[in-house]
Each structure stands twice: as structure tokens, then as C-alpha cells.
Design a protein that fits this description.
302 residues; alpha/beta; Aminopeptidase; two-stranded antiparallel sheet; 10 strands; 35% helix; Peptidase_M14
Amino acid sequence: MQQQQYPIGVPGQPWGASEKKQWFEQQRVQRSYQTDVLSQIERFKARFDVREYGQLNYANQHYPLYAVLTAEWDDDKPTVLITGGVHGYETSGVHGALKFIDEQMQSYEAIFNFIVTPCISPWGYETINRWNPDAIDPNRSFYSESPAQESALVLQLIETLGVDLLAHVDLHETTDTDNSEFRPAKAARDGEINTNWNIPDGFYLVTNSENKQLEFQQAVLAEVAKITHIAPADEDNRLIGTDIDIPGVISYPAYDLGLCMGLSQAMYATTTEVYPDSENATPAQCIDAQVAAVIGALNYLR
């Protein structure tokens, strides 16, 4: 389904600096990182090791970035990374990470060390955006010399900690705005023709095509299914235009695409995808589904 022309740029011509500036000037703050995220992280300091791992400064806006780590770190335990808000507009990923920390993390610390970055892209969170202010997608930028500060700072954090990750759960959403805004904007930015995919109604996972670990993915889905429905494949047996590996799971080349789930060589990695616009799921269910995905992963690994 081809979409109408995006209102910025010339069809077939990639954006230059002026088009990116025009796009940036149209963005507006719609919610508060301080109120929604930082206030919660402040409360975690009594129970966990809360570390500022970097700062973002965009257009007179200052965003400190925090990771929440296991308080009593034990080098003999395996380490699990949980990332949220790589795409800041994907609300349940941010709040799912925060809820996991608050309600579940301590009960698993006897077995695992944790690193949790609840909101990697705070400007995107506040303006409800997929990109950062430079019109760069952080979730295509997890590689050496990354052009996205958001991605580069997480990579630097993991390198500085010097840990080998057993597992990584990256919390995301697929929303109706992927088709109405973000894919048309991407096509315009890149000078391409946009064709939309069907938005799956339900929860699904994206794994690394080079290391699928499908039994692990199934364990994650089994826990999520207690909370919300798993997305069925479309009539072509696909999800977001990609052939399914097993029901509820597709795979992408994580390293080649610079995806967050490919930032390490973790044996077990997955990207969650919740559908918050479903008539069959509430915002609370979407958040709980993200927590369930992490629990399903941990119970499998345990």
C-alpha cells in the first residue's frame, strides 16, 4: 500500500541539512522525561546501583542518561542486559523496563547480574519520535563510531563495564504510527518510495538471524501469552513484511543492521514488539507484557 508523499523534501531526493532542520523544527515536547522516568529512577537508588552513563544536549534540552545495575555485583554470575526506549516513542518499552526494575529485579539477583537502561532516547520519549534530533534512527546505529549519541553511549557503557552478556532483551513496540508517520518519513529522508506493511495485532519477537535460539524465543512468548495475545501471521505467513521462523517470531541480521539486540555477542538475544493500538490490549497490558517477556527469558535461562 503506497502512501501519499511526505510533506518534507522532494520525491526521490534524499534529505539534506535544510530538510532535516525543517523536520526538527516541527517536533514538539509532549511529555516529560523528568516526571515519567527520572523521578522513578531516583527512587531506585536505595535498592540498586544507579549510574549516569552519559548526557545528551539537544536544542537547549539537557538529558542525563542512567543505567540501573545490580547492587551486589558478582563476577561469577551471568549478566543480563535489558534495554528500553531505544525508540523513545515506544512507551511500554520504557515503562516495562522501569516496572521490571521496581517489582521483579531483586527476586532474580541471586542468579543474575543486571544492567538496565530504561530510556536510551529521552528526546524521542518526550517528542514521541523514532529518530533522534538529527533524524537518525538509534536502532540502526549500534556499531563502532555510531552517528547516534544515544547508541554510542550505550556501547561505551557496556565496554566500560567489561562484562560478557549471557542475554539481552530489548523492549520495543510496533504502532499504527509506524505506517502513518515513521515509514513515510524514512522513505522521504532516504529519497525512496514508501510501501507500508501490515501492522500485526499482538505481541511478537524479532531475533538475530545469525543466532535465532528459537527455544528461548518460545519460552519468552509462552510467558507473554499469559498477559496478552501473540500476533498471528498475515495471509502471506509474514509479520511486518518478513517471513516467520516460528509463530510469533521473525529474524533480522542484527549485526548488519546495527540493531540494539546485536550490540554484543550475547548467546540469547531478542527484541520484543508490543502492539499498543490493539483493541484487545490496554496500555497496562502492554507494559505487563514487556515485564513478562523479561521474566520468560530469565526463567528459561535459570
